[in-house]
Amino acid sequence: MAYQKDTNMSDASQFFVRDVYPKSVEPAAPADTPAAIAKSYVEAEDNHLAKRFETCAMLCRKAMDLATKTLRGDVAKSENLYQRIEELKKIGLITNDMAAWAHAVRLNGNDSVHGDDEISEAEAKDLLNFTQTFLLYAFTLPAMVGRRQTGATG
Fold first, then answer.
1. What's CA 64's distance to the chain center, in Å?
2. Where are the domains of the chain?
């Protein structure tokens, strides 16, 4: 914390907080991410910051689950996460590499719930980084392109 003396105050209250270091990090989902998906992603980031890595992995999986349901629309009702990832790859909405990473999030998220192995900080960070990238690719970039095509800014 940085303190600055205020000479107009009594001795008991002559200091006030001018700034705080380090700055707090406020987790945020990528722009244009639908609210429910953004909530899961932000909770995943919060849990990573709090060093709750299994919970971070579970929430990354949940964000991926919700994102793929959103991308697949009504047909998602009859598909599990594995099938949705494969269908998104098949129809070209995600690349083969993105599908492989999405499956990694799926499997690690499952392991964090059902497995005995702990998720390391590095593993959780990888899952979080990929989930963020997936959301950027799935929601932020298409919205940016759409705004550009319609002449809107932002």
1. 9
2. 33-138
Cα–Cα nearest to 128, from 10, 66, 14, 48: 48
Strands 2-5 vs 15-19: parallel, antiparallel or unpaired = antiparallel
Q: What is the torsion angle, in degrees rounded to the nearest 10, for the CA atoms of residue 59, residue 48, residue 88 and residue 150?
A: 110
d(CA 57, CA 111): 9
CB neighbour burial string for 110-142, b if at least 16 within 10 angstroms, e if fewer: ebbeeeeeebeeebbebbbebbbebbbbbbbee
pLDDT over 80 (residue 7): no
| Beta-carbon contacts of residue 151 (< 8 Å; ≥ 6 apart) | none
Query: CATH number of 33-138: 1.25.40, 1.10.3470, 1.20.120, 3.40.50?
Result: 1.20.120
Give dist(CA 88, CA 22) in Å, integer.
41
Backbone angles phi, psi at 75, to 5 degrees: -65, -15
pLDDT digits (tens, 9 = 90+) for 19-43: 888 887 789 999 999 999 999 999 9
Tens digit of each residue's pLDDT (9 = 90 or more) over 84-102: 999 999 999 999 999 999 9
Q: Inter-axis angle of helices 53-72 and 121-135, to 10 degrees?
A: 20
